[in-house]
């Protein structure tokens, strides 16, 4: 099994509900085991499109799926949760990105690992730091905490719901 880290985000409708449904869909796959989840953070939108605040988190999994099959499954989860790809960087019910897949680096037409511009995205770095500040970003050869320390200040990312470590329906506390 290979460890992988996924980023989840939502800014339409019941944002928390979409995140939790995505986690349950990941859990339902026989070749995916969830190892850990971050707290949920409310974040300012990234990119040029005017839109609502996001809820973001990261999920650490282990899987026997190859990267392309994992991508195919995560995209099927997005479709199942009414994700529409009409505006680049636009609003979405759910977005699931593969941040890391073991220590693999790849760049194909459909998949780039590690995910592009991780080092510029506080909405990814902050929850990643919570999971493991010493994760080394493949290709960057820097730890998450070092990438985070390069920012003058942490803004646009606020703790929304703290993880409490409980079971299936008690993943989060207010």
From TrEMBL:
Query: What metabolic or biological pathway is this protein involved in?
Result: Cofactor biosynthesis; tetrahydrofolate biosynthesis; 2-amino-4-hydroxy-6-hydroxymethyl-7,8-dihydropteridine diphosphate from 7,8-dihydroneopterin triphosphate: step 4/4
Enzyme Commission identifier(s): 2.7.6.3
InterPro entries xref list = Hppk (IPR000550), Hppk_sf (IPR035907)
Q: Does the keyword field hold Zinc-finger?
A: no
Chain coiled-coil ranges: none
Pfam families membership: HPPK
Q: Tell me where on the tree of life, at the top rank, the source sits.
A: Bacteria
Tell me which NCBIfam families the record gives: folK
Name under which the protein is recorded: 2-amino-4-hydroxy-6-hydroxymethyldihydropteridine diphosphokinase
């Amino acid at each position: 099994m290979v460890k992988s880290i996924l980023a989840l985000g939502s800014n339409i409708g019941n944002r928390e509900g979409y995140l939790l449904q995505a986690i349950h869909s990941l859990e339902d796959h026989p070749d995916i085991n969830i190892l850990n989840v971050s707290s949920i953070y409310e974040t300012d939108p990234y990119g040029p499109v005017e839109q609502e605040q996001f809820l973001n988190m990261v999920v650490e999994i282990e899987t026997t799926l190859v990267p392309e099959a994992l991508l195919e499954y995560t995209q099927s989860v997005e479709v199942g949760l009414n994700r529409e790809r009409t505006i680049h960087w636009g609003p979405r019910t759910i977005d699931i990105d593969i941040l890391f897949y073991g220590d693999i680096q790849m760049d194909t037409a459909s998949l780039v690992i590690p995910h592009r511009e991780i080092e510029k995205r506080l909405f990814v770095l902050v929850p990643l730091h919570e999971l493991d500040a010493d994760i080394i970003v493949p290709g960057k050869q820097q730890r998450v905490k070092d990438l985070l320390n390069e920012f003058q200040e942490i803004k646009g990312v606020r703790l929304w719901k703290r993880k409490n470590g409980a079971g299936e329906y008690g993943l989060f506390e207010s």
